[in-house]
Every structure is written in C-alpha cells, then in structure tokens.
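Record passed on here:
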Amino acid sequence: MGSKKNKDKAKSTFLFGKKNYKIMLLGLGVIALGFALMAGGGSDDPNVFNEEIYNFQRIRLAPTLILIGFAIEVYAILAKSDS
C-alpha cells in the first residue's frame, strides 16, 4: 500500500512553469540569432584581408544580441511561474 503512495509523489514535475519555458526558448532564439550574425566575414584567400569582419553587425549587433539573450534567460529563471 505504501509503495503506491510513494509512486504518486514521485511523479515527475517540471521545475518551471510553461511561461518560463517559453521565455527560455525566446532567449535561446536571441542567442542563436546573435551567433548566426557573428558568423562569416572571412576571406576565401588567406593572403587577402577582408575588412568585412569589422562591420557593425559582427562587432556591435551580434554581441549585444547575445548579451540580451543571456539577460532574457536570467529573467526566465527568476520570473514567477504560473503555478
């Protein structure tokens, strides 16, 4: 009899609410977008330097998006869940 009661208590429960997981997915999407914007800009020929690596997108926008994504993740963890 006692083992059934323990099994009911052992049912898996999520640590965060549905709202928290949605915010976490949004944060991961922003981080992924930042890394995607940072990629590229290299030269096909190693003897030729490409100035494109120092444009606004790679130097300012992408790292800012990554930091905003991490801030969203922190908010998602600290936000009060629905339940």
